[in-house]
Each structure stands twice: as structure tokens, then as C-alpha cells.
Write a structure and sequence with these properties.
With 231 residues, this protein is mainly α. It is built from 10 helices and no strands. Helix 6 (95-110) packs antiparallel against helix 10. It is elongated. 26% of the residues are buried.
Length: 231
């Protein structure tokens, strides 16, 4: 690169990109950047990695907070299917099957380097993004799971939100062990996820009747196979 600046803020000889493509490039690199350095990383460093001027970044995102909002939309909200609250409440399907389907899909989306690291950095920084995501998750997924557990439990134990968080947190911790702590994890997380769900349902004596054995198979993962370790 020769250090010159093009009309759209490119440094050197990089080609000028259409606005939509440029915005996509910035957000994609911002995800990788903040996953690597944390939310304290500055836009000047990000611009340098992109090979553009800092002023170009501010052409697309007026503030760093606006850029982080785009990262939030990409990493968090874009990974929860809008139909999951409805699917979780569908009692024509056994609760075990619903939970297996959700956590198989969900783990395939979050058990990756960038998601885990941004989530942890955001939590440590006390960032609003983290709190907003957890509130959204609680409202759209965990609260319906609690309602279904309470409706289907056949013991005197009353499920609480703490029980739901214990189930959810235990499953998410598989990804944390791998991408945050660098510890060994199951080659295939599906079995560990199924075991966690079975223990949870067993505690409330759900799915232990005569039809339980017909729903013991694990749902298939998407065609692209098990989750990749990162981008």
C-alpha cells in the first residue's frame, strides 16, 4: 500500500466498495476485532486493520456505540430465530424434543470463538449489550421453558427460574471451557447436551412415562456439520 487515500477512505490501492458491501465489511471485521481485543479496542485500530481511514468508519457509524450496536445485532439478536418462543410452547411435541432441538441449534450458533469472547468481554465490562441480550433470552426462551416445565412436572417440586438458568448455564459452559479457558470439551457436544436435559427433566419427572423412549434420538445438526471453532 502506498499510503494514499481514495475517495471512499481506502488507504493505498484497495478498491472502492459499494456502501452496503463496505458496511458489511466493517461489521464483520469489527466482530473479529472486538472478540480479539475486547470492547475497549478503539476505532483507529479497527480502521488500520481494515485498511481504511478512521473518518470512513464514522461515515457509516457516527459513534463507536453505534458500531457496537451493529455488532450486537450481528452476534446476538441475529442468532435467535423469531419462531422459537412459539416452538417452545408447542405441546404437540414432547418437551425433551423441544429442548434438544433448541439447544442443538443454539449451541451450533454460539459455540464459536467470536461469540464467546465478545459475550465474556461484554459481561466483564458491564456493557449494556450483555444485559440486553440476557433479558431478551430470558423473555423469549427461558421463561417459556419455565412455564412448560411447571405445566408438565409430575412431582411436588416447583420449578424456578434458577433451575432454568442452571440448565442453560451448564450447556453454555461447554463453549466457555473451549473458547475462553482452552480446556478439553466433548468431541460432540450433543450427547452432553442431551444428558443435561435428561437430568433436568428427570428432576421434575417429565418425559418418564411409557412414550419417553420414542423420543430419545438426538435431532440432526444443520448440514454444515458441528460448530466451527471460530471464523
Amino acid at each position: 500500500m502506498d499510503g494514499t487515500t481514495g475517495q471512499d477512505g481506502d488507504i493505498g490501492t484497495r478498491r472502492r466498495l459499494p456502501p452496503r458491501e463496505r458496511r458489511e465489511q466493517i461489521v464483520a471485521e469489527a466482530v473479529r476485532f472486538f472478540a480479539e481485543v475486547g470492547l475497549d479496542g478503539n476505532t483507529r485500530q479497527l480502521a488500520k486493520r481494515l485498511g481504511v481511514t478512521q473518518s470512513l468508519l464514522f461515515k457509516y457509524f457516527a459513534t463507536k456505540e453505534d458500531l457496537l450496536e451493529a455488532v450486537y445485532e450481528r452476534v446476538y439478536l441475529g442468532r435467535l430465530s423469531a419462531d422459537w418462543p412459539t416452538r417452545m410452547a408447542d405441546r404437540s411435541t414432547p418437551l425433551r424434543t423441544r429442548l434438544l432441538e433448541f439447544y442443538t441449534e443454539y449451541s451450533g450458533l454460539i459455540f464459536e470463538h467470536d461469540w464467546m469472547r465478545i459475550f465474556m468481554f461484554s459481561g466483564l465490562a458491564g456493557a449494556a449489550l450483555n444485559h440486553r441480550y440476557l433479558e431478551h433470552l430470558s423473555e423469549t426462551i427461558l421463561t417459556p421453558v419455565l412455564a412448560e416445565t411447571a405445566a408438565l412436572a409430575t412431582t411436588d417440586k416447583q420449578p424456578t427460574m434458577e433451575d432454568i438458568w442452571n440448565l442453560h448455564g451448564g450447556i453454555v459452559y461447554i463453549g466457555i471451557r473451549k473458547h475462553i479457558y482452552g480446556l478439553p470439551t466433548p468431541d460432540c457436544p450433543d450427547t452432553a447436551i442431551a444428558n443435561a436435559i435428561d437430568k433436568y427433566l428427570s428432576y421434575f419427572d417429565i418425559g418418564c412415562g411409557k412414550n419417553a423412549s420414542s423420543h430419545l434420538s438426538l435431532p440432526d445438526r444443520p448440514d454444515d456439520g458441528p460448530p466451527a471453532p471460530g471464523d
